[in-house]
Amino acid sequence: MPLVISGTNAKKYINWVGEHVNSPEQRLALGATALATQPFIDLNNKNVDEQTRSISVARTLAKIIAGTIVGVAVRHAAIKGIGACTKYEFLDKTAKIFKGIKPQSKYDFMTPNSNVIEVEPVEEFVKKYDNYVKAVGTFAATVVMIFTNFAIDAPLTRFLTGKFHNYIVGAQKSNSTENLNQEVSK
Predict the structure, then answer these.
(1) Which pLDDT score, from 0 to 100, does residue 18 have?
(2) Is the pTM of this model over 0.85?
(3) Which pairs with CB-CB distance under 8 Å and at least 24 residues apart come from 162-165?
């Protein structure tokens, strides 16, 4: 059964998201959602002891934060990098209808050949070209992230896990000390 969206506000929202939310923003939204939910799930897991729970929370926080920071940064940098290699100029600079493009300089090696297949307004071409840059940038980021997972994510996760675990253990000790002091004073 197909999903039918009939409200004009819903359509406007979906179109806006489709045009403005790209892979860096999607990774940020994914990281924020994970940060808001997963640590609490680990924290309330009563099937494991307190020590395992605190390590699990620390590791989850570290993985989410490291993955989000690196993921957003790599995606953003890749899209900007591809954008820097895809500058173009129009073959006919005064036309309102797209007639073709050529690379602006020898460094614009990612600019595709322009064989005009369909006649369209220049504004439509510019939107499609922007989507091309973002798609190729996202693909390039995916390839780069194969290496950054080992080179950056893993060491950063390990470092942050230690910091978060020390903080969590310190907070647990101060809470247990406060509870003990309260019990003694009664």
Answers:
(1) 80
(2) no
(3) 162/58, 163/62, 164/57, 164/58, 164/61, 164/62, 165/54, 165/55, 165/58
